[in-house]
Design goal:
The chain has 441 residues and is an alpha/beta fold. Helices cover 31% and strands 22% of the residues. The strands form 6 sheets. It has a 5-stranded parallel beta sheet with strand order 2-1-3-4-5, sandwiched between helices. The chain has a 5-stranded mixed barrel with strand order 16-17-18-20-19. The relative contact order is 0.08. Bound molecules: iron/sulfur cluster. The site of iron/sulfur cluster has 10 residues, from helix 5.
Length: 441
């Protein structure tokens, strides 16, 4: 019998939801082996820093986090996107125990074993079958593939994570089923390019329940739609075959919500960005989706100040925005990422101009967003509860709001609510981001 206390692992997870999913996998594996989680550096025998290396600012943040973990604890294993550039880390922190690239769960776990061997106790608590989640219990991210076959000129994700590798549909569905059994009410489907799901395996079938399911965006959406929870689709490019999924939204099988990272509207900029689906007639496609599913929420992100972006390109983008009437929009200024071909395409746009364009863009969208949200006043909608307080107040999200990136619904209720409840709410007010309402009895 091993009488040592259970070894404790600290975790700092930086970056996007995709990195969060990786962290969850690592932690699930370690918990299964009897490790415990430590909330602070002092209580941890070893610390994992899951880094983000996409933008230079994210790299700086990752290096800061590694520095802090080294200073506070001293036994540090680095993983995640920055792990693909170990020299950057070793230069500053030669004493980190190990550096592993993204997706290298086994190497992270191995490094932890070396630093603090697992405790062998046949009676330790086994991990719940659905794994451990770092997101709140009522929603979970579901990663369906890793890597990307596109080569957008501003992005180094394919260099860091390789080409697209899709998980078999059966595996994804089994994971989704377990999550639902464990109480998850909302699944957030993520990848680098969700509509390309299965291209790498030629849409091959795999077994789930009593049937064969193709590893394809439509088939996966249909089956996820049969699980009886909210399913939200992220990172979907507007390829023609996405049209087939919209009727599933109109029928209430999956959420009428699409997150489509468009990045620009000017053909010149899109071409320079080498964006997937850049020749598609996107406005006509969005229009068709709205005809099939009038309640659909369309969210997108854009980059302004891309090298070579002219005033005309930018004005075209603003006009496009007026026509597209998207519901939710994020806008970033272009930041050069080391190793991305875009940096050498044309002269950079001065920082001042970038910031001015970003402000004008957000102003234009704020008007659209405010009008769209105001149109919801007087309606009664479903809201999933994220947080409650003791005075009958709560915060939730409608089908139109993804966690962390969209707005929220502030609400009042005369009865106790729990996180994860889905309630009917009368919408009484709105501003440019959020809705306000009262829960129906
Ligand atoms: S689609 Fe483009 S931006 Fe997205 S991960 Fe692939 S290469 Fe990067």
């Amino acid at each position: 019998m091993d009488d040592r206390p259970a070894p404790r692992v600290g975790l700092v997870s930086l970056g996007c939801p995709k990195a969060l999913v990786d962290s969850e996998r690592i932690i699930t594996q370690l918990r299964a082996e009897g490790y415990e989680l430590s909330k602070d550096y002092a209580g941890a025998d070893v610390v994992i820093v899951n880094t983000c290396g996409f933008l230079d600012s994210a790299k700086a943040e990752s290096l800061d986090a590694i520095g802090e973990a080294m200073a506070e604890n001293g036994k540090v294993v680095v993983t995640g996107c920055m792990g693909a550039q170990p020299e950057l880390i070793r230069d500053k922190f030669p004493d980190v125990l190990a550096i592993t690239g993204p997706q290298k769960y086994e190497s992270v776990v191995e490094a932890i074993h070396k630093a603090v061997p697992p405790k062998h106790d046949p009676f330790f608590d086994l991990v719940p079958p659905q794994g451990l989640k770092l997101t709140p219990r009522h929603y979970a991210y579901l990663k369906i593939s890793e890597g990307c076959n596109n080569r957008c000129s501003f992005c180094i994700i394919p260099q860091l994570r390789g080409d697209l590798v899709s998980r078999p549909a059966g595996d994804v569905l089994r994971e989704a089923e377990k999550l639902v059994k464990a109480g998850v009410k909302e699944l957030l489907v993520i990848s680098q390019d969700t509509s390309a799901y299965g291209v790498d395996v030629k849409y091959t079938e795999s077994k789930w329940r009593d049937r064969e399911v193709r590893t394809k965006f439509f088939d996966l959406s249909r089956e996820l739609g049969s699980l009886g929870v909210w399913t939200r689709m992220h990172y979907v490019y507007p390829y023609p075959h996405v049209d087939d999924v919209i009727p599933l939204m109109a029928d209430g099988k999956i959420l009428p919500y699409l997150d489509i990272p468009l990045q620009h509207a000017s053909p010149n900029v899109l071409k320079a960005m080498k964006r997937p689906a850049h020749q598609e007639k996107t406005l006509a496609r969005l229009q068709r989706w709205r005809e099939i599913c009038p309640d659909i929420t369309l969210r997108s992100t854009f980059i302004v100040g891309f090298p070579g972006e002219t005033d005309e390109d930018f004005e075209l983008l603003l006009d496009w925005l007026d026509e597209a009437q998207l519901d939710r929009v994020g806008c970033f200024t272009y930041e050069p990422v080391s190793g991305a071909p875009a940096n050498d395409i044309a002269l950079p746009v001065p920082d001042e101009v970038k910031r001015e364009r970003q402000a004008r863009f957000m102003e234009r969208q704020a008007v659209i967003s405010e009008r769209k949200l105001a149109a919801k006043i007087g309606r009664t909608i479903d809201v999933i509860i994220d947080d409650t307080d003791e005075d009958g107040g709560a915060e939730g999200r409608s089908m139109a709001d993804a966690p962390e990136i969209d707005g929220v619904v502030h609400l009042r209720a005369d009865r106790p609510l729990r996180t994860g409840d889905i309630v009917r709410v009368d919408i009484e007010d709105a501003d440019e981001h959020d809705l306000y309402g009262t829960v129906r009895e």
